[in-house]
Amino acid sequence: MNEANSVKDAINAFYKGAGINLKFTGEVNEKVAEIFGKMVIETQKCTTALKWVPTPTGGKATITWVAKNFTKSAINQLKEEQSLTCAKKVILDYKTSLKLASLGI
């Protein structure tokens, strides 16, 4: 599986773990990876569920960083109610930005 597919799988696993019925079908590029990295960091701010995920080097997530550090097993951390609420808010806040990034905008 290539890194772009890993990023897409990570985003979709994040949605599923948050209990959101969305599917990311856009194109994966560095901007998409960067925004997803921001989503992970924002989720870390309001729950301890993803605290173990390391901060991206240089402050911006890359496709390689997402593929390496955000596996489906990370989603198991989002089971508690506080985590679910937190992740849902982050998804809502970044949904449009992620879509625009996948379109190259």
Structural class: mainly alpha
Count of alpha and pi helical runs: 4
Radius of gyration: 12 Å
Number of strands: 0
Strand content: under 5%
Q: What is the topology?
A:
Blueprint: H1 3-17, H2 30-46, H3 63-69, H4 81-102
Give your account of this protein's structure.
The chain is mainly α and 105 residues long. It contains four helices and no strands. The protein has helices at residues 3-17, 30-46, 63-69, 81-102. α1 (3-17) crosses α3 and α2 (30-46) packs antiparallel against α4 (81-102). The chain is globular. The protein starts with a helix and ends with a helix.
What are its keywords?
105 residues, mainly alpha, 58% helix, globular
Write a compact overview of the structure shown.
The chain is an all-alpha fold.
